[in-house]
Amino acid sequence: MMDVGRHPRIKLLAYSEVEEVSGYVGNFRVKVRKKARYVDEEECTACGDCVDVCPVIMPDEYQMGLSSRRAIYIPFPQAVPSSYTINIEECLGVQPIACGKCAEKCDKGCIDFDMKDEIVELEVGTIIVAVGMEVYDPTLLDEYGYTRFENVITTLEFERLVDSGGPLGGRFARPTDGRVPKRIGFIQCVGSRTERRGNSYCSNICCMNTVKDSLLLRDHYPEIDITVFYLDMRAFGKGFEDLYKRSKDAGVRYVRGLPGEVKEDPETRNLLVTVENTTAGRLEEHELDMLVLSVGLEPREDSKTVQQLLSLSRTSDGFFLESHPKLKPVDTPTRGVFLAGCAEGPKDIKESVTQASAAAARAQIILNQDKIPIEAITPMIDLDLCNFCGRCARVCPYGAIVDVDPKRKVSPRVIEAACAGCGTCSAECPVGAITQRHFGDEQFFAQLEAMLGEGPEEKIVVFACHWCSYPGGDMAGVSRLQYPPSARVIRTMCSGRTGERLILRAFALGAPMVLVSGCHFADCHYINANRWTQRRVERLWDRLERAGIRPERLQLEWISAAEGQKFARVMGELEEMRKKVTPEEIEYTKQVLAEKA
Amino acid sequence: MLYRPLGKEVIGLPEGERIGVFVCECGLNIAGSVDCEAVRDYAERLPGVALAVRNRYTCSDPGQEEIKKAIVEHHLNRVVVASCTPRLHEPTFRKCIYDVGLNPYLLEMANIREQCSWVHLHDREAATAKAKDIVKIAVARARLLEPQVEMEVPVTKAALVIGGGVAGIQAALDLADAGHQVYLVEKEPSIGGKMAQLNKTFPTMDCSI
Fold first, then answer.
1. Is the Cα dihedral A357, A359, A361, A364 positive or negative?
2. CA distance B155 to B146
3. Contacts of A142 (CB under 8 A, 6+ apart)
4. What is the pLDDT of residue A178?
5. Is the pLDDT score of B8 beyond 50?
6. Helices B86-99 and B61-73 sit at what angle, rounded to 10 degrees?
7. Distance (Å) from the C-alpha of residue B69 to the closest C-alpha of chain A?
8. B141/A133 touch (CB, cutoff 8 Å), yes or no
9. Checking phi first, is residue B6 left (phi over 0); if not, alpha (psi -120 to 50) or beta?
10. Residues of chain B positioned with their CB less than 8 A from the CB of A74
11. What's the confidence (pLDDT) of residue A96?
């Protein structure tokens, strides 16, 4: 931590949040809101004189609310930057100045109630997302009496209670009477590995954390009797099994089985735990002075914001999705953005550090080059065909098409460096003047003709975007989900590329069903190009209906890269719909569309 | 993808399409539910196809060597690899064909694993028929592929790390030690994250800060 504060090439923006990200790999522009601390970060010497006079008392988050802090505070003594902060919502001193005692007390005059949030603009080539996780909160479901019995605590509260920098100064004691407990129990998998409460995944760190806690207690309080209630002990890492064995050898009792009920003795405030010991095959009752809930890990609540800022995807558990689970575990679908630590999934410190180094190395592959190639999928405009309508410029999410003016008949111009290659312009062009390189209409037509040349009535045309729906289909495969073999997938970079010409050509060639699929709205990898997809499909539904073609034959679905199950389900549903499309309908559609063409 | 800007072809394009189709068995991942020989045989007779080959693992070194050799010997000017998702090995095969002078955009992949063999495990006949169709569609597209030239963009030599927990700290230090400017953004008043709240850490039982 200290190294970060001192490093000449690290600019630390603490108490700050990323508000806006634009640009692309190698050239991101980022806006960061540096929140007002109301204390001059550079000048503050962390002497603490201000704290003595602050009248506002609040629970201390760092100590898990087990002790208090003032409205002006430093989270913990070793904080970096080493500066106090005023939580302005708690402070009495602003508008009108009612208090201001800290400002009077500070000899260096570091406190400034007029300080404002500052917007810092950065230009960077790569971004590493290391936003971390939350710890599961057992209050919602009152697991094991956590909200009712004071002597039931979580593992993070336990960490603070045993810490010499904790609220008890390192003298471990139970909350109700300040005595060192004689018997302590740990319950594993709280909020993990359960469909009913919390999360279905294993949180990865809790087993070893409890083993560690048991050894900490053994070292300092050998007289405490320790029992661990568990489902399975997972000691899979290097040195883990040794530590687990040490704990067992030190006399820690491991009972296989999670408690069914926890009651409190109102007199002693002790906890009565009923558990089925599945190894011994008997029902046991344990009287304990204190109970620690080994809580799991969860995605951060603000993950959605980060996801939208950077066009990332998340797996069904809510953690960020990597480009490939084995081969690209720190890359994301957005080129130049990498993942490190628990943002990607629950992991311990060693794994977080390993992944962070990996992400830094991957980022350097880009940073060490002066220039990087951009895929040749940008649009080319045929100015002879262009009618200067300007729709291309209107739908471009990047403002990469400029100059076009319908009134003065000025032709459009493409700024290639700003273009990300979604192809929406090409789909939207009413006269077919725009060709997306490598994804031209003619190439899609050739695919459709090959696909629907024989037995078209048996097939379902699926347009899937490169970033979400196509990999969603891949995920179905990786998960070995079985679905009917009628689907034929055509990959576009963005669902915005799936223009009317492509969809109508599919129907004209006899396709019974067509699916257009793309990323969920907030996840579009081309900012909001898929909004145009929706408008276009809605427009087409009207047109099909007017032409006497059932609009249901054109379907629109948003499928993310993680939604293999949804992809397989949709394929099943489409197959059911396909079976209901009659040969007469298909023939009629072909005729109608042939007349129009 | 480390290939350079793609100016001119090393191998002159022969008249007309000469497509090479490489059908991958992927061990039993594809061959387990798709008759790869039948797919190869079908591909060989498609318009524009000059050569169709079946490989055990097309992405392996011998598999890639076979593609390179075939491009030179058979004057191939388009390549279709029928294997896994392009999201996995398109960069691999683009580089492979580029190594012998073919423009990387003259590659097309037919996904007969994730979107065929793995999702139709118990119907070999239907899976094989679908795989043929997928290859046919890929060949049809390949015939119309054109060589492309890639543009290059400059790289800003700085990195942003979002989050100052143990992972963010490590990533920031590594990048800065390697000589890059790093901006580390942390939401809370101090860096340290959840780890700073821990007393001791496993497996070494040492302090966290």
1. negative
2. 28
3. A148
4. 92
5. no
6. 50
7. 25
8. no
9. beta
10. 189-190
11. 60
Span A339-350, pLDDT tens digits: 999 999 999 999
CA distance A21 to A308: 10
Contact residues, chain A, for B141 at CB < 8 Å: 443, 446-447, 450
Cβ atoms of A156 and B193 closer than 8 Å: no
At residue A151, the pLDDT reads 97
**Tokens 């055509």, residue?**
A490
- Model pLDDT for residues A545-575, shown as the tens digit of each residue: 999 999 999 999 999 999 999 999 999 999 9
Task: Check: CB of residue A466 under 8 Å from CB of residue A519.
Answer: no
Which residues on B lie below 8 Å from A132 (Cβ)? 163, 165, 167-168, 193-194
Which candidate from B139, B146, B176 shows the least CB-CB separation from A10? B176
Selecting from B111, B134, B166 the residue whose C-beta is nearest the C-beta of A352 gives B166
pTM assigned to the model: 0.80
Q: pLDDT grade, residue B7 (50/70/90)?
A: very low
Token pair listed for A505: 């050509």
Which tokens is A285 given? 């009752």
Determine which of B6, B80, B143, B190 to mutate to test the interface with A (most A C-beta atoms within 10 Å): B190
Percentages (nearest 5) of helix, strand, coil residues in chain B: 40, 20, 40
A579: left (phi over 0), alpha (psi -120 to 50) or beta: alpha
Q: What is the mean pLDDT of residues B76-102?
A: 95
Residue B65 — φ and ψ, nearest 5°? -60, -40
Q: Across the interface, do A342 and B167 touch by the CB < 8 Å criterion?
A: yes
B152, B157, B193: residue with CB nearest A367 = B157
- Residue from B137, B171, B100 nearest A452 by CA: B137
B124-143 and B36-44 helices, crossing angle to 10°: 30
pLDDT digits (tens, 9 = 90+) for A474-491: 999 999 999 999 999 999
Which amino acid type is present at position A135?
V
Report which of A359, A295, A329, A321 is spatially closest to residue A135, judged by C-alpha positions. A295
Averaged pLDDT for residues B60-80: 95
Which DSSP string corresponds to B143-204?
HT------EEEE--SEEEEE--SHHHHHHHHHHHHTT-EEEEE-SSSSS-GGGGG-SEETTT
- Range with lowest mean pLDDT among A265-269, A394-398, A493-497, B184-188: A394-398
CA atoms of A11 and A27, how far apart (whole Å): 19
- The answer to whether residues A264 and A270 touch, using CB atoms and an 8 Å cutoff, is yes
User: A418: number of CA atoms within 13 Å, CB side?
Assistant: 13
**Bond preceding residue A81 cis, omega within 30 of 0:** yes
Distance of CA A318 to the CA centre of its chain: 6
Mean pLDDT, residues B159-175 taken together: 98
**Average pLDDT over every residue of A217-230:** 96
Distance in Å from the first CA to the final CA of chain A: 68
Q: Which residues of A touch B130 (CB under 8 A)?
A: 485, 488
Which residue type sits at A398? Y
Name which of B134, B157, B165 is nearest A341 (Cβ-Cβ). B165
Task: Please say if the pLDDT value at position A131 is more than 50.
Answer: yes
User: What 3 state SS string does A231-292 have?
Assistant: CCCCCCCCCHHHHHHHHHHCCCEEEECCCCEEEECCCCCCEEEEEEECCCCEEEEEEECEEE
Write the pLDDT tens digit of every residue in A519-530. Answer: 998 778 887 899
Q: What are the tokens at A415?
A: 């700024």
| C-beta atoms surrounding A258 within 10 Å | 18
* Residue A97: predicted pLDDT: 67
Within 10 A of B31 (CB to CB), how many other CB atoms are there?
18
Cβ pairs bridging A and B (under 8 Å): 351
pLDDT recorded at residue B2 = 33
